[in-house]
Design goal:
single chain; alpha+beta; D-amino Acid Aminotransferase, Chain A, domain 1; D-amino Acid Aminotransferase, Chain A, domain 2; 2 domains; nine-stranded mixed sheet; three-stranded antiparallel sheet; 7 helices; 12 strands; 26% helix
Length: 243
Amino acid sequence: MFYESILIWKGTIPFHVYHQLRIEKNARLLWNSSLNFDIYEFLSVHDLIKNDQKTYRLYLSFEMSSEQSLIINHELIGINKNTILNKNFKLDLISYQEVLPSQDLSQIKGINRNFYIRAQQEAERIGKAQALILNSLGQVVETTFGNIFFSKNARDFVTPSLHSGCKKGIMRDFFLENQNDLGLTIAEKDINITEISNFSYAFMTNAVRIIQGIHSIDQFIFDTKKYFWIYDKTLEKIGLDFD
């Protein structure tokens, strides 16, 4: 079983191609088969296309039954568009370590869901927004809700390599592919938890919330203002119109 969280913005899916490719790849990894599935067609068949200016989160789960038939469940949730690219939203995280599955399986969203639920519950228990996932080597993987980026100067960023066990997230791919247009440099590398004190800035990304600043991880505090320009550049590049 795997799942996909999709942003629907004024009747369109900004990252349609990214989502489509990831769904097809997950089906090959899990079931060694191609998946005849199109997101827009699914929306149309299930009457989920809304002719309004609202913003939605579409949750899709894919499961193969014992009879080898595909089961797709969905949930459409309205969200406040002002929570997207909110410059004043600041995340406080705790670090959480456990053994993760193999690299190939870690790319599938939902394959280690129970572990992420436990990590998130521990974060919420002590009043934190999310948990920062660490692998068995003490390397940073990602947060419980998305990929993570660090910087010393708010221009040159690093993000954990796929070898760490992090997901090949939609926004992670977007930033890596468009870093020149956004005026950034981004390197993929292994980052030990002991190294995060060397950075002054950090943010989290996913395909629904886009980008959210990180205020703290454990006892380490980060600046959440100097890279505000990245929010504006990202909005412009994606083509999200707030009018």
